[in-house]
Amino acid sequence: MTISRQLWSANQDLAQACLEHPFVQGIAEGTLEQQKFAYYVGQDAFFLEAFARAYSIAAAKAPDFSGFTMFHSLAGGVLAELRLHEGYAVKWGVNLRSVEPGVATRRYTDFLLATAWGGDVGLTAAAMSPCMRLYAFLGEQLAQNGIPNHQYAEWIQTYSSADFAPLAQTLEGLVERYAIATGLLHSTYRYAMLCELDFFQATWAATI
Length: 208
Prior knowledge:
Radius of gyration: 16 Å
Order of helices and strands: HHHHHHHHHH
């Protein structure tokens, strides 16, 4: 079993908790309050900017040109996702330039950037991998019976699309290339998964 599969398998409890979270189920059913989704769009855009920066730091630290180009390519994918969020922002009336990150958002972005600056590229890839794999998993699960016809259908379509899963696989390939299966690697991956669950909970609990 690959390192990435081991990590993902060891954190199925958190993956299921995210899938069953009322925020995600509200997206699945189309019943999530619009204000909560609008808040999520702003917080996620702030997060994605940090995520792209972490990719860029990893690219600069990559020990070979192949890794350098792959990390930069993944950063480009995040920038494309940010453009999608700009479309969401217009639709939901969110000013992305004035977003104030919540505590859970800041905790997650600070963790990713600290890992990218202070850790090696294998550890950075492992810290970033849960986000990509989890969203591919959520998209796949929510689209299992077809894309629903409601206000959050585009979100489900994005993360269940044939374009998104390969990005997660590319990042996991970098984990395999550079990471060493240590206790630190496992705890870093799990902390990122916990940050994902906290992110959904903070968005769900936000008073707008």
